[in-house]
Write a structure and sequence with these properties.
Length: 365
């Protein structure tokens, strides 16, 4: 039931503050602020030498953020593959001790086959999964639930941000297990994660401004999304969202890659969406944006107040989000990207919840 919402996708975007809080509750004891494993699950990161992450589509972008999280907060090196490559690549797994898969449905054929392959290689397997009782939830050694509730819209929204929340808390947990995160830092990080619902609510408030921008986006045939560091996976997720529901061709790039090819595409008709919270990557991202501006590209900058004050780029438009800790930016900045895709699709008159050629769960390879 869509309730008062126009589409399931819109409803699911609006549910994020609540389901993020549920998901966090599975990984953090909210009364003590200590990380924990979800009920009935056992996973100790202290002896894990290397993690292999794998998933498809939006789950893959969540896994990419997950890699940044595990490397930053737990200092565990990670490998990452799309599942359709992992299952056939037959790569030497070397010192990988744990394989983590990310799947909303828990049924995606390539991800399931990858999980089975990892098991056959003697790896411990874990799945970040939204559907309880799904095949992956039954077969993995460790189940890491996202509590997003049923996701009906084909384009993943709340499942994605809940995957990020699960991976962020798990990375903090891993850091604690390994002595990389001390007790004070653990409390600080979980306190920060608990701000996600409020910040998600504030991000949803950008909707009107995004809707105005979407009218222009809907006149375009192509779009570029750029980000660095924690925002690089989001650039790809933002592009995926736009293409799958509005059918506008979009590409997501690491901002630093711009000059290695895609800059040739920039002219005064090319919209460029830049994800640039005022974090350690900001200055570098802005220097890439200057290159876009110099060629007339139409820039939309997603940033915070200090970013908007420190990196004004001639002719760019800003969507200003609240200031937040780095660990939260992928979760919160995903929301304006979802809204941009959603409103652009509405402008285009496409079927938002059931885009052409797509299925919610891809059970064939
Ligand atoms: C994009 C989208 C797909 C899925 C992919 C994996 O919005 O929904 O790219 O993320 O098909 O599906 P799950 O997560 O069910 O394994």
């Amino acid at each position: 039931d869509k309730g008062n919402y126009r589409h399931f996708m819109q409803k699911e975007i609006y549910e994020q503050p609540e389901v993020l809080s549920h998901t966090l509750g599975a990984f953090v004891d909210m009364t003590t602020g200590r990380t924990k494993m979800p009920k009935g699950q056992d996973l100790d990161f202290s002896k894990i030498r290397r993690i292999a992450l794998s998933a498809c589509g939006t789950g893959y972008y969540a896994a990419l953020v997950g890699r940044y999280y595990f490397e930053r907060y737990a200092r565990i090196p990670c490998d990452l593959d799309v599942a359709s490559e992992f299952r056939y690549r037959e790569s030497p797994l070397g010192d990988v001790d744990l394989a983590i898969f990310v799947s909303q449905s828990g049924e995606t054929a390539d991800t399931l086959a990858s999980l089975r392959y990892a098991k056959s290689q003697g790896l411990k397997t874990a799945v970040v999964v939204n559907v309880e009782g799904s095949t992956m939830a039954r077969e993995a050694d460790v189940v890491l639930p996202t509590l997003a509730g049923p996701e009906i819209g084909v384009a993943s929204t709340k499942a994605f941000t809940c995957q990020l929340m699960a991976l962020a808390s798990l990375a903090v947990r891993a850091g604690v297990d390994r002595g990389v995160v001390d007790a004070d830092e653990e409390l600080e990080l979980t306190r920060v994660l608990a701000e996600a619902p409020r910040l998600a609510r504030e991000a949803i408030h950008t909707e009107e401004r995004i809707e105005a921008l979407s009218r222009e986006m809907a006149t375009k045939r192509h779009a570029l999304f750029l980000g660095r560091g924690f925002s690089f996976p989001l650039a790809m997720e933002g592009a995926l969202k736009l293409k799958e529901i509005s059918y506008i061709h979009a590409e997501g790039y690491a901002a630093g890659e711009l000059k290695h090819g895609p800059i040739a595409l920039i002219d005064d008709t090319m919209p460029v969406v830049v994800i640039a919270p005022h974090d350690r990557s900001f200055e570098k991202t802005i220097s890439n944006v200057q290159e876009v501006a110099a060629r007339g590209g139409e820039i939309v900058l997603l940033t915070d107040a200090s970013g908007a004050a420190n990196g004004p780029v001639e002719g760019s438009r800003c969507i200003v989000l609240p200031k937040m800790a780095e660990i939260l930016t992928p979760i919160v900045y995903a929301i304006p990207l979802q809204l941009l895709a959603y409103h652009t699709a509405i402008q285009m008159g496409t079927d938002v919840d059931q885009p052409r050629n797509l299925a919610k769960s891809v059970t064939v390879e």
